[in-house]
Amino acid sequence: MGKSIYSAEQQRLQEMLRQARLDAGLRQEDLAAKLKRPQSFVSKYESGERRLDLIELREICRSLGVSLLSFVKKFEDSLK
Fold first, then answer.
1. Mean pLDDT of successive 10-residue stretches along the chain, which has 80 residues
2. What is the spatial distance between Cα 24 and Cα 71, in angstroms, rounded to a whole number?
3. Is 69 buried (19+), middle (13-18) or exposed (0-12) by CB count in 10 A?
4. Alpha helix (H) ranges present in 24-66?
5. Would you state the pLDDT for residue 6?
6. Residue 38: which residues within 8 A CB-CB, separation 6 or more?
């Protein structure tokens, strides 16, 4: 089994996070400001350079106006 950072699932997660940000009408800089993080934080997790833990994912979803549960369900459905 290869490293999960290079997996199709990881790539799908990155795509979904980027799309959720775009759907919210936010630039990376805008989301970073809401998260009180540097823009590079958003760039790094969207590009796969950085992994997120569950607490960070929850914070990002909240900042995007999406529930963590609905985001995870959409992610799971996209893998079927």
1. 73 97 98 98 97 97 98 96
2. 13
3. exposed
4. 28-35, 39-47, 54-64
5. 78
6. 32
